[in-house]
Amino acid sequence: MNRIQLFRLLRHNNNLSYRRSPAFEQGMVAKVLMGIGAGIFVIYLLAFGTMFGFIAAHEMDEPTFIAGLMPYVLMIDFFLRFMVQQTPDVLAKPYMLLPLPRNSVIETFLVSSLLSSYNWLWLCFFIPYAIVVWAGGGSFLMALSIVVVCQLLLMANSQFYLLVRTLLGRSMLWWFLPLVVYGSVFIPLLIDWNGDLFERFTEKLIAIMRTGWWMLPATLLLLVAMFFVNRKMQFAYVYEEVSGQEKKPKAINHVYQFSFLDRFGQTGEYLKLEIKSLMRNKAMRMRFWTSVCIIVVFTLLIAYTPIYDGMMNANFWCFYCFAIYGITSLVKVMGPEGNYIDLLMVHRENILSLLHAKYYFHCAILLLPCLLMLPAIIEGKFSILMVLAYMFLSSGLLYFIMFQLAISNKQTMPLDQKLTGKGNIESGWQLILELVAMFLPIVLVTILIFAFNERTAYIVLASLGLLLTLAHPWWLRNIYQRMMKRRYENLEGFRATR
After folding, report:
1. Environment class of 218 (CB within 10 Å of its CB; exposed 0-12, middle 13-18, buried 19+)
2. Which residue among 254, 297, 357, 362 is least enclosed by CB atoms within 10 Å?
3. What is the pLDDT of residues 32-60, one digit of tens each?
4. What angle do CA 308, 313, 316 make, to 5 degrees?
5. Are 236 and 168 contacting, i.e. CB atoms less than 8 angstroms apart?
6. Distance between CA atoms of 359 and 326, rounded to whole angstroms?
7. Model confidence, pTM
């Protein structure tokens, strides 16, 4: 069996495993929604590609103006991949015991990531730019080289994303790698606040692409280098994981009891479980600290810098500082418990106590952005009413929407799995409710502010959020009762996806 036959076979098997997934029909709904999102994204890319092409061809007379844009395009592409590209699950485990060249298995999945449809969407930006530049007097060879070089850079960026995403599974400190790589673009601006050095840096990039005949082989070499670095690292980590050779964790010297939660009875026990799960399970711990870091960064940005000083910008980002953790963690609510859901079904209303514990834990997380914004409130940048409105809106309306997913979620989420495993298909309901939770509060805020005024809007939102927060025992019980009606279907899904 040659490499091409092996590639086709593994691609075929991967597609079959996707179609046989218990969430295949839900995944089809998700694919339709993602298709709609991709269509909107393509429209934006076509518009921006054409606009920048006109700027380059007519206003600046500089066909390679796109070289000055590429650092920002690559940075945007890198962070977009966290939303549109799932964790790089290398489904190599079933093939490790077969008489197949193991590196070839890893190569197959890396090539599949290069050929993903998302990578080719960016051609909707590069091709219109190149066509406008060519029509504006540039040579065809120049236009073609712009498309090829930019696409190769984007594909190399996709390999860099896989590299960083895999390393983040080992340590959160690897966040410094993309921060250094993409942050280096802004070093000239930090050195010279007037922007002269930054402007010269951009002009240098444009000149390099205009006169650098070596750009094509250089970008191709970069792509090949990133591919083989990924190949070596992915194989080493995957083999270490499936063979059980990972470094053993240090012995636990101290066991935290959290005895102050004993007074809350069974709900307190599940609060202990929630906290200890985050402390002891690597996948959950990484997701928790990633969300907390995002909360801290965004809170500090809107509170202590003038970047988002506009009224709507401040409202938009202030809400997401409170909402980001709930949106990212509750979209998979009951997923971690799918590993031991059978035990939770043994006693009456165990699940209801678990839902209460999850709700209280997520409400406690809301205190973090609230505390971080206190100095900004004291300085008068934000009003107490605004912060309270978004805190109660999150604990009430947002959590009410996101906890509905506990009814339909039936996919087990691994606690410590990192590179190998079964696919984790996003269901259609997850996507729909996630979008509603993200945009409905902002729509309400916008309507109320324009219909009345800020103070009235915040009072209405705070009242709505507080009402739903105080009513949580009733709507959590309703969710529990609807879950019990689907318990056998959900149990079957959890067992099939472990």
Report:
1. middle
2. 254
3. 766 777 788 889 889 988 988 888 887 76
4. 125
5. no
6. 10
7. 0.70
User: Which tokens in the block code for residue 365?
Assistant: 């997380």
Structure tokens at 110: 């890396």
Report d(CA 477, CA 332) in Å as an integer. Answer: 19
Helix (H) or strand (E) holding 360: helix 350-365
SS3 content of the chain, % helix, strand, coil (to 5): 80, 0, 20
The single-letter DSSP state of residue 305 is: S
Q: What one-character-per-residue DSSP string does 373-398 give? A: THHHHHHTSS-HHHHHHHHHHIIIII
Instruction: Provide the token pair at 432.
Output: 């729909």
Neighbouring CB atoms inside 10 A of 176's CB total 11
Q: Which residues neighbour 3 within 8 Å (Cβ) at sequence distance 6 or greater?
A: 104, 107
Annotate 406-452 with DSSP letters as a single string: HHH---PPPSS--SSS---PPPHHHHHHHHHHHHHHHHHHHHHHHHS
Phi, psi angles (nearest 5°) of residue 402:
-70, -35
* Contact present, 227 and 159 (Cβ < 8 Å): yes
Identify the burial level of 83 via C-beta atoms within 10 angstroms of its C-beta, where 0-12 means exposed, 13-18 middle and 19 or more buried: exposed
Tokens of 176: 């410094």
Residue 170 Cα distances to 111, 274, 479, angstroms: 23, 22, 36
Cα-Cα end-to-end distance for the chain: 32
Stated as kind and residue range, the H or E segment containing 195 is: none
The radius of gyration computed from the CA coordinates of the chain, to the nearest angstrom, equals 25
What are the E-state strand segments in 134-216? none
pLDDT digits (tens, 9 = 90+) for 167-191: 877 777 888 888 888 877 777 655 6
pLDDT in tens, 284-315: 887 788 788 878 877 777 777 666 666 667 77
Between the alpha carbon of residue 487 and those of residues 197, 313, 410, 430, 483, the distances in Å are 63, 43, 9, 18, 6
**How far is the C-alpha of 450 from the C-alpha of 175, rounded, in Å?**
40
Tokens 């092996």, residue located: 6
